[in-house]
Amino acid sequence: MALRGGIDLGGTKIQAIVVDDDDTILGQARRPTPTSGGPDDVIRALADAQREAAQAAGTTPDALAGVGLGSPGDVDADAGTIAQAGNLPDWHDAVPVGDLLGTLLGTRVAIGNDVSVATKAEFDLGAGRPYRSLLGVFWGTGVGGGLILDGEEWLGRGAAGEIGHMVVKEGGAKCPCGRRGCMEAYAGRKAMELTARERHADGEHTRLFKIMEEKGRDRLTSSVWAKAIEHEDKLALHLIDRAYRAIATAVASAVNLLDIEAIVLGGGLGVRFGEPAAARLAEEMQPHLFNDERPPAVKVAELGDYGGALGAAMLVWP
Question: According to CATH, what is the number of the domain 4-113+306-316?
Answer without folding.
Answer: 3.30.420.40
